[in-house]
Amino acid sequence: MVFLTPTEWEILALSVKVSLLSVLITLPVAVGVAALLARADFFGKSVVDALVHLPLVLPPVVIGYFLLLLLGRQGPIGALLDQYLGIVVAFRWTGAAIACGIMGFPLMVRAIRLSIESIDAGLEAAARTLGASRLRVFFTIMLPLALPGVITGVLLSFARGLGEFGATITFVSNIPGETRTLPLAIYSQTQMPNGDAEAMRLSIISIVLSVLALLTSEMLVRRAQRRSHGRDA
Amino acid sequence: MRNAARMAAMLNIDVTKRLGDFSLNASFTSDSGVTALFGRSGSGKTTLVNAIAGLLRPERGVIEVDGECLYDSLRGIDVPVASRRVGYVFQEGRLFPHLTVRGNLSYGYRLTRADQRYVEFAHVVELLGLGGLLDRRPGNLSGGEKQRAAIGRALLASPRVLLMDEPLAALDQQLKAEILEYIERLHANIRIPIIYVTHAIEEIVRLADVVVIMAAGSVVTAGKVSDIMGRPELREQTGRFEGGTVIEAKVVSQDNEYGLATIAFNGGQLVIAAPDAGVGHEIRLRVRARDVSIALTRPPDISVLNVLSGRIVDIHAEGGPSANVRIDVGGVRLLARITRFSLQKLALSPGQQVYALVKAVSLDR
After folding, report:
1. Where are the beta strands (DSSP E) in B274-361?
2. Residue B234 pLDDT > 70
3. CB A36 within 8 A of CB A163
4. Residue B92: its chain A contacts at CB < 8 A?
5. What are phi and psi of B187, to 5 degrees?
């Protein structure tokens, strides 16, 4: 597209990249936690439930600050990662993805959990009488039927990632080309004299991106729902 | 402490399970092909079947199917659901909505070890008439089609026992008849024990050999259908059957001019209106108690074709205008419902020799 400047392209690509990675790393965990919360009864379930929802109620800056403490180069986990695996996430785009992932996690778990809870548990029992192990039931019955919820969860978390600001700027700062995603770039423009026009351009990009993500997921959800309601496609 | 006879039973069930206010305490054995679990809703039929399937763990007891122990609290045996190889046909079908009929049918089939398979895919598809439905999804199937697919899915896992939990309850009369036919054909084709849960007497009389009557979580009685269904003291449970006798018999000859068949049973012969009963066929007859009258001497000129000689076993008359009289006719206990007035007038008493006049007979299979 001719309308965007190279810098704007860079910011857009970085934002999408950060959000995509955040979704990829949280999705398997979110599906597991959602299945556990929806179907299992275990000691401390309400504690797990509360922990999952924490990012929804805490100020994002607090999350970012704790991430910095834990995953910074001097932090207990960050130091280990650096020393043994050579992985550094502080002030890197991968760190931004972790921040976005944590902020989007409760949204993802909620959507998938609701979807799993709406599945008739009798179907899972039927599969087990047919000789399927619990793991097989999970992959062949529960997961396909929860697909609409999984797609919704992915979208919500992806969109949350695109808009993530507080935790990101606190944890990985605002480094052009590395951690300056769309919201951070817009914020930076508003802090500069004569930055209004650019801030507006970036905001419009942000809106278009969000609408596109929403439409895509709507389409996917509808297709998945047709399947899980058992109608011929 | 099981003796040889109990070990040999096809089904040996004895379970205890508490669920809130409800407690299941059921035990029975059965050696026959189709065992019907009969009782009102809430009598514990489904709970019992779920325990057999392993979906519910009893507190105590034994579950043995075809010589194989699936659960024994004393010996610490509790075979996991997935390894029990029970074919469970649920009341609501429970087809997997995201899979086609083919996908549903092959779900258990693919999970069964090749050396344990005794049914072939094509055979079941043909038996249940599923050929045209294979690529459809459950959401687009009618109630009867769904139930047929569910039966097929359970069968294709080559189960040791088929558990059918009111498979016809959600269907209308015409579909019921259709599926009943399939189940009968199935029973004739594939020789595995079937546990059939129902609260419809007609289905029991048509399908089952042994009936287990349940009430409030316990087994009231269990036995051969022909023994149980005529017993007046079970009227409270079998109420809708409105009392009668089930007779196992064999067609010996057919009269084409009048459309009558002669059938033989232990107590003698009966002539029934049946244009095409099929000579040599084993059939099951139902005689309603109110279609049986009693005479002290053989009536000479009478339109009733069937007059059987027998001896009164016992008489039940508790209030109301009518009385139930059981007559032993060559080992078959024929139930007659007469008025208490006639009972008195004829001065009937147990042991007395009488003639039973059978006015109507219905053919069950």
Report:
1. 282-288, 292-295, 306-316, 322-329, 332-339, 353-358
2. no
3. no
4. 122
5. -60, -40
Q: Looking at the predicted structure, is the pLDDT value of residue A34 above 90?
A: yes
Q: What is the ipTM metric for this complex? A: 0.81
Element (H, E) at B98: none
- Please say if the pLDDT value at position B1 is more than 50: no
Contact residues, chain B, for A128 at CB < 8 Å: 55, 81-82
Q: Which residues of B touch A (CB under 8 A)?
A: 53-55, 81-88, 90, 92, 94-98, 107-108, 111-112, 136-140, 153-154, 157
Whole-model pTM above 0.80?
Answer: no
Partners of residue B88 in chain A, C-beta under 8 Å: 126, 129
CATH number for the region B4-228 comes to 3.40.50.300
| Domain A6-60+92-117+127-228, CATH class in plain words | mainly alpha
Q: Residue A225: closest CA among chain B residues belongs to which residue?
A: B98
Cα distance between residue B255 and residue B273, in whole Å: 10
What is the domain partition of chain B in residue ranges? 4-228, 244-363
Residue A221 to residue A36: CA distance in whole angstroms: 23
Q: Looking at beta carbons, which residues of chain A come within 8 Å of B81?
A: 125, 128-129
Contact B149, B122 (CB under 8 A): no
Query: Count of H helices and E strands in chain A?
Result: 12, 0
CATH of B244-363 among 3.10.450.50, 2.40.50.100, 2.60.40.10, 3.50.50.60:
2.40.50.100
Question: Model confidence over A50-75: pLDDT tens digits?
Answer: 999 999 999 999 999 999 999 988 88
Residue B161's closest chain A neighbor by CA? A129
